[in-house]
Amino acid sequence: MENSFPIIDMANLNGEERGIAMKVLQDACENWGFFEILNHGISTEMMDEVERLTKDHYEQCRKKRFLEFASKTLEDSTKGTDTSNLDWESTFFLRHLPVSNISEVPDLDEHYRSVMKQFALELEKLAERLLDLLCENLGLEKGYLKEAFCGSKGPTFGTKVSSYPPCPRPDLVKGLRAHTDAGGIILLFQDDRVSGLQLIKDGEWVDVPPTRHAIVVNIGDQLEVITNGKYKSVEHRVVAQPDGNRMSIASFYNPGSDAVIFPAPALVEKEAQDKKEAYPKFVFEDYMNLYLRHKFEPKKPRFEAMKQPIATS
């Protein structure tokens, strides 16, 4: 169990296996920062339709633009231009909360918009269910994490839709450079036929196994702060592949922009006897502004910078 990627069958949370499933979840949050969930309540039919529409959309609307980028990137790299700050991905973003922008995103047909809107509602419910399971394991009252994410307009929730097309020179360019995620809890629907996602575990890169109809979940920086480091965000990357076009639909359930983030007092008290220094208190938008400039750098200096008084002014 210790060395295998954590997989949680959420059907077991309703029966005699609940205690075991909750322990797997706790170990995943403390020691992996990632886990995979099965039987999560989102229908396989909906997931299949999301996948079909997303892959069709890339072929019809995004492929031409990406191939132009790919051609220039490869040409530049053969001339000695540094391509280490580029990612081999085609991406667009959908915002769901506090206000949806799905109707404004170009090149989406009405059926795709409708399906993605419904998919987002299902993911939002799932994210909030997971946050309550985390509360249970942490000894926090139900709803604490959801409330902690609520600024004046509630949480922020959005989706990054990505394609990672085949790359003839994966030695020259990354699919997506190594980073931690800035936000709260991240739910990923990834391709089950093309791999590439890896995380750091015990100093080594480990593959996140592609599993059909699973959702991959990972801990963001804000949950690390709120849990005072009990749960940690983990560095991950996408390795460009020579074959196959990998689909990635990552949905980020994050605090509201004006939410004040700080370690849960109950968890700080528990660890005070260990003389462990508490994580900082800050406004989420301030953290995001810093993160956008330093996304592909270590997270610790970001946390340290948030300890400065200006961060909460």
From TrEMBL:
Keywords in alphabetical order: Ethylene biosynthesis, Iron, Metal-binding, Oxidoreductase, Vitamin C
- Short name of any one Pfam family annotated for the protein: DIOX_N
The metabolic or biological pathway listed in the UniProt record of this protein is:
Alkene biosynthesis; ethylene biosynthesis via S-adenosyl-L-methionine; ethylene from S-adenosyl-L-methionine: step 2/2
Q: Which InterPro entries match?
A: DIOX_N, IPNS-like_FE2OG_OXY, IPNS-like_sf, Oxoglu/Fe-dep_dioxygenase_dom, Plant_2OG-oxidoreductases
Q: Which GO terms describe its molecular function?
A: 1-aminocyclopropane-1-carboxylate oxidase activity; L-ascorbic acid binding; metal ion binding
Lineage top rank: taxon: Eukaryota
Q: Which GO terms describe its biological process?
A: cellular response to fatty acid; ethylene biosynthetic process
PROSITE patterns given in the database record? FE2OG_OXY
Where is each Fe2OG dioxygenase domain found?
A: 155-255
State which Enzyme Commission number(s) the record gives: 1.14.17.4
The Swiss-Prot or TrEMBL record describes its family as follows: Belongs to the iron/ascorbate-dependent oxidoreductase family.
What is the protein name given in its UniProt record?
1-aminocyclopropane-1-carboxylate oxidase 1
